[in-house]
Design brief:
The complex is a heterodimer of chains A (287) and B (244). Helix content of chain A is 37%, strand content 21%. Chain A has helices spanning 44-51, 73-82, 99-109, 114-127, 143-155, 173-188, 200-206, 231-236, 243-253, 266-274, and strands at residues 5-13, 19-28, 33-38, 59-64, 67-68, 83-86, 161-165, 192-197, 209-214, 217-223. Chain B contains 9 helices and 2 strands, in the order H-H-H-H-E-E-H-H-H-H-H. In chain B, 27% of the residues are buried. Classes of the chains: A alpha/beta (287), B mainly alpha (244).
Amino acid sequence: MTPLIELDSVEHAFADGSSGLHSCTLALAQGRRYALLGANGAGKTTLLLHLNGLLRPTAGSLRWHGRPYDYSRHGLTALRSQVGLVFQNPDRQLISALVEEDVAFGPLNLDLDEATVRCRVTAALDAVGLGAFGRRPVHQLSFGQKKRVCIAGVLAMEPQVLLLDEPMAGLDAPMQADLEVLLDRLAARGVTIVLSTHDVDFAYRWSDEIHLMAEGRCIASAPAQELYAQREALRAAGQRLPQALALHAELARHGLLPADAAPRSVEALLAALRAQPVDKHRGEILI
Amino acid sequence: MRIDAAAYKCRWHAVAPGAKALFALSSIAAAWLASSADTLAWLTLLSMSATLAGARVPVQTYLALAVAPLGFLLLSCLTMLVTPSSAGGWQWSPEMLPGVTHIALRSFATLAAVLGLVLTTPMPDLLALMRRLLVPELLLDLMALCYRMLFVLRQAWDESNTAQAARLGHRSLRARWRSTGLLAGQMAIQVWQRASALQMAADARGSQGGLRFLPVLYSNARRQTALSLLASGLMLAFSLRDHL
């Protein structure tokens, strides 16, 4: 099956001469969840900007459904209607003063008729749980709500691929949990999701596949379940092992849990541990 | 910011902006038609009552916003009462008082009408109304972006200002001046960066150049416009009474 998006040895040099991406190769399949994992400055945002066609590679190529990216005005409009990007800072994305005006911005740019745009705006706002916020001014919203409006603004374009740049940044724990539920809902609808993060625990828990990045290079790609085998690449990307994975490895080493199928979160690990039969030994503790 | 907050909080914020604009314009027209001081005073009172009692705009907000134009008006009226004397100096001219009073009352009535509109109509609604009135798109796009950026930059300014205060940047007048200068310079860079970021974000959502907006639907617009027409007609008739 042809991947949805392919990057083949993509290089990008910025105007000041610094390198953004260096020989980056990866493939994204339809309906999967991807995490781009790397430290600050690893090239995650640069990669996302390439996927949306906002940046053009200085060498190498990108393919959409097997065809090279078309950087003509018409080609970019077609691409961006299918590959939506949510920026890290909502205040840098929200253009209009009213929530529904901003969400309608993308669909209107697709030359859809008014009734369809209204339907999409309503559906997108409902999807992010802001159905009653349509006529609210953007500047009166909380940071988390603004982020949701940004996602709704892209969802209203009904893209096949949703790119999110550091979606959890700046959100408190309950907001992160809400956003994770929203992302799960979108993934269940068949939307391909690619997000950048430097939270290894979240990436391991949430994604199907993880692409590790360091200094503009895509240094490794692996299904999340196989991350343990990528310890060296994780270290090179400035990351540690996910807590759940490290704990599981230690518990398995002591024979307390089976070595196969590591749980994806600490909560799941605890549940697995509690499910184990417990042998109680009577005796005294020597110190 | 105060105008914006009042416009969103008032009872008439969801009323069709066309109806409110019609009422405000009629109030201004009535103020121009009225020739007696009594009529002008009543018109002012009517506009103020509509804003304060009808739309429930807080009196404090209303007065805070009216104080600047009222001060300007008072100063203008006082200067009109002082005229050059034949001896080459300045003299008090009480004979100008009726004319000045009339101008002041007419200005009050007009000010009350304008305040009534801006304090009850959120800016996006005003922009939508202007769009329906075929104001050039480019001007409206600029206004929409400026309005949005006003809040973004205000927040950026406040945050940077607080950060400066936390590092003793405001400990003396000299330090405060220096910090404000640095902040202004830094804001210029931020404006440029944010403008680039907004352009990039607009491109990412398939922007074709201009901003496009959905027409706003007001469920009771017809009834509200009819009521506004009725009130406007009554006001104009009240002013025309002076000419009979």
